[in-house]
Amino acid sequence: MIWFKQNPEVHHHQLTLVYRTMKTTRQAVSQYLNRKTRHWEEELTLIPIIKDIREDHPRMGLRHIYRKLNPKTMGRDLFIEFARQYNLVLPKSKSPIRTTWSLPGLTTKNLALDLEVTRVNQLWVSDITYFWMGNHFAYLTFIMDMFSRKILSAIASQTLLADETVLPALKKAIKTRNNEIPPKLILHSDGGGQYFSKNVLAFNKKFTILNSRAQSCYENANAERINGTIKNDYLIPKNPQSFSELSLLLKKTVYLYNHEKTHSSLNNLTPDQFESFNYKSK
User: What is the mean pLDDT of residues 164-187?
Assistant: First the structure.
């Protein structure tokens, strides 16, 4: 290995021979690995989404769920087989159930567990949920500051891809903070693959953001609660009929939540007031 590193041209030649033997190319192998990674990312996020749908619509068939979710990395039959492995079929499967799934090398711990949050930009929590608009789903990605309960970003998307969910949500959250965040800010989420995608991890490394992963649904309850509040109390009653309507309504809702909704845990202040008070008091 050391000899290869010291002689990269030899290493390149050896790899070229391997590719030729396998009747493939370096580019083809790279594209294959990227496809597999995107597939793993989507699977990780689909699991809690399907479980949420199952709770709301316990008798909805998998074919119907597939048409509404329209996953980008798997066809209908592969989707049904994937759901069967997690006992998400109707009726319940009696076959052995796979209960764990993770991206290769995904060992991130829960950094938020027992953490005392004493300031803004210390711990951000995030989650992705689905929103049903008649005949198809949209997806909502939230990032909230745990100290002030302020929603820093809320992104509506039409796919579950990381580049349309977590990545733009992170960019918007940092922009909300005037592009100034302290090093080692913790971003806490569930095991959704988007949070550990190549582009998101590279972005977090650039801003020295630490990824934290919940080990169970109970360890990301704050992010899931804000999802439920915005979706059930604000969006569903307004019944947006198009993606553009949903996006506009989401923006207005976040403003109202941050500037007009008081919280008993914030001394009956709004998130925006609570942040302003604490900044001024320092």
Answer: 95
For the chain, domains (ranges, CATH) are 2-85 (no CATH), 123-280 (3.30.420.10)
Q: Across 68-72, 86-90, 99-103, which has the greatest mean pLDDT?
A: 68-72
* Residue 201, both tokens: 């991890």
Query: CA nearest 147: which of 187, 109, 117, 125?
Result: 117
Buried b (16+ CB within 10 A) or exposed e, 181-196: beeebbbbbbbbbbbb
Using CA atoms in the order 247, 140, 208, 175, what is the torsion angle rounded to 10 degrees?
Answer: 20
Q: What sign results for the dihedral spanned by CA atoms 186, 190, 196, 199?
A: negative
Q: Which residues pair with 207 in a beta bridge?
A: none
Q: How close are the terminal C-alpha atoms of the chain, in Å?
A: 55
Q: State the average pLDDT for the chain.
A: 81
Instruction: Tell me the pTM.
Output: 0.71
For strands 186-189 and 123-133, give the pairing: parallel
Burial class (CB in 10 A: 0-12, 13-18, 19+), 170: buried
Average pLDDT over residues 57-71: 80
Residue with tokens 């509404």: 68
